[in-house]
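Comment thread on ticket #2218

A.B. wrote:
> Attaching the input chain for the structure job we discussed in standup.
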Amino acid sequence: MKRLGRATGSLAVITVLLAACGSSGGSKSLSENDFIDSLDSICKRTDRSINRLDPSDRGFYDDILGVMQDGADKLAELEPPSKLKSDFQDFADNLNDQIKAAGDLSDAVDKDDQGAIADAQDELSKLSDDANNIADDLGADNCVDIGFGGATPTGDTTGGTTGGTTETSTANTPLPIDTAAPTTAPAPTTAPPAPPTTQGTVPPSTQTEMTVPSGGDGLAQDASAAWAPPTGWTYLPNDPSTSLTPFSDPVLGSVITGYWVGLIQNDATGQKAYMYISETAGEWTNEQVEAIYSFEAVSNGADVTTPLGNPGRVSIGVGDTNQFDVGAVILLHNSIAIFTLTGGEDMVTLLDEAFAANAMGG
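C.D. wrote:
> Ran it. Output below, let me know if you need it in another format.
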């Protein structure tokens, strides 16, 4: 069960998490809470990376070993507090043992040695159980059942798709924005009609995926601590904890792994807007796209393709008094939605600016 009470929303803590997940510098001595948060973050990234792998891919096991080794390297950068050193060392040693066992399994699969496959699977299963016990002792919830829901890889290349019944989504409602709208901006450029709502994989943006910080646990996170604002915009103080999130949505709840909310202001005009960023465990299906569009209040809008090639949808005049313009774009594992006061911004351009500010290599 997730420990939702642990404070992880401050800029200082998230800075530590991002450093632990991507820094190439030396080890850092952390407080007990910050250390567990950093460990949880590494485990979550590792779990997400493994679950994105395709078991039918010929390079599946090499990819798993690469992800596991990357996780081990990240762990080596952490400096645990003295109270947790013994358990953490056991956890790190266990991961190294799992890497060896996964290598043995890969070799056995290549040789089609069924006995060796069974032995390697048994070893991985035992090591996984041991790792779960150690993670539980550490209080690192995200380090329990890493990869494939806790199941060990089998080499089975058969796959399938999951269908489902579409249920009604609850639309997101932005908080009040206390500023008058500036001059009217150009209307968005319309594109072909929306894709059908039947299940299937949606062609995502052709752009490089946005960078993905850790977040989620059923609550909205502070976007200002994880994502850059669009060019020419600045974050204003905002409490995301009161925001509606898609974690409870009947379609999105099982696939959303993070949701961030930020209040931004245009440096030149003073226009204020809310920016919402979601992260998913896999590529969007048509059903999920329609659900996030519904949640972000653009269901009845016009489909667009932004100049950067991102598919999206824009609604002009949303809300009880038609006071908002809303836009959303769909990326490979993310969506971006922005609410502004009506007539204040070119939504298509603003969505691209938000994407460009956070795209890998941008």
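A.B. wrote:
> Thanks. Noting for the ticket: The first strand starts at residue 28 and ends at 29.
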